[in-house]
Amino acid sequence: MSKSVATSPTSILNSNSSLSELAAQPQSDSDSSLSMPEESRNETVNSKCLREEVSPQINGISQVTLQDLKKELLITTVLSSWKIEKELSKLYPLSNILTDITSLKTQCTEFQRSNTQMDNSITFLYAQLAEMKKQLETERNFYKQKFTVLEEQVKECQPLSRASFIEVRNVPESRYETVSDLINFIQKLGMTLDIRINYHDIRDIYRRGNPEKTKTIVVEFMTVQMKHMILSSTRRFNKNRAIADKLNCEHIGMIGEKRPIYVVEHLSISGSKLFFQARQFSKKCGYQFCWTKNGKIFLRENTNTKFIHVKTEQCLSNLIDLSKI
What's phi and psi for 202, nearest 5 deg? Predict the structure, then answer.
């Protein structure tokens, strides 16, 4: 059917055009036949008869063709509408997906904006923390230096506050010992060292230390000179004596065990600890001399070397490192 439709419209259009031309001049043909010769009139009559025979056939064909075209056009229109609706129905889910995608894009944009704001806040806080850390580090260094200076000042003041103190160690303690007993012992010690110590030369005297061990006798004299006299006389007394014959309880007139007696400067707790470490170091590293003077601790390797002032434990650590080189 489609093939006939495809071919018939052109033939119909051609036939219709010829018929319209003939129909447009009916009167002129009849009028002209009167003036024409006989042969021409015969030809005209023949053509009229031919038109009358052909025109009903052409009209019937054109009517059938137009109806078919209308039907086919209607069918094509319906099919096109159906296809369009079908395609549109397929696009409905896609429109929902596009809506969801648009919503997701909006959410992603909001999320990115929130992340950007959060990053800016974190960057700001980090900068503040870095500044605070820098400020605290500066303050810490300042106070650390200040503390070191104050510590040094305290260390310098401590010997001054103990400038007239001495300690007498390893002296046996009696059961009912009194301050008078301690003063008598110090006076006997002075006699052994060829120093006269009067009662009024002593400002204060007491024992201190661990109860489980022999407590140390601490003596504060009225003058610093008396302290130096006692210490220097003790060194002279022990200088040329054997270890067993150095200053001991027997020299003081005490009955019982022959225990050595040590007369030294009175140091602070930190100073006593450092002096103990210095003595241990001198024994370990072969230093011949370790002593204190005016609350200061000194080391000397031998008589041909210079003395070393030990201020802190770090000084001993540095000496140990040097001895390893």
Answer: -105, 120
Residue type present at position 225: Q
Which helix (H) or strand (E) is 309 found in, with range?
Answer: strand 308-310
User: Dihedrals φ, ψ of 31, to 5°?
Assistant: -70, -40
Residue 17: burial class (beta carbons within 10 Å; 0-12, 13-18, 19+):
exposed
What Rg value do the Cα atoms of the chain yield, rounded? 66
- CA nearest 169: which of 200, 224, 228, 213? 213
Tens digit of each residue's pLDDT, the chain (325 residues): 333 333 344 443 344 444 344 344 444 444 444 444 555 555 554 555 555 554 555 555 566 677 878 888 888 888 888 888 777 777 666 667 778 888 888 888 888 888 888 889 999 999 999 999 999 999 999 999 999 889 888 877 777 778 899 999 999 998 889 999 999 999 999 999 999 999 999 999 999 888 888 899 999 999 999 999 999 999 999 988 898 899 999 999 888 888 999 999 988 888 888 999 999 999 988 899 998 888 889 999 988 989 899 988 888 888 887 776 6
* 3-state SS track over 43-79: HHHHHHHHHHHHHHHHHHHHHHHHHHHHHHHHHHHHH
Indicate the domain borders of the chain: 2-93, 162-266, 267-325
> SS3 for 217?
strand
Instruction: Quote the CA–CA distance of 298 and 315 in Å, as a whole number.
Output: 11
Q: Which residues contact 107 (CB under 8 A, 6 or more apart)?
A: none
- Which fold would CATH assign to domain 162-266? Alpha-Beta Plaits (3.30.70)
DSSP label at 288? Answer: S
pTM of the full predicted structure? 0.54
Q: Do residues 298 and 291 touch, judged by C-beta distance below 8 A? A: yes
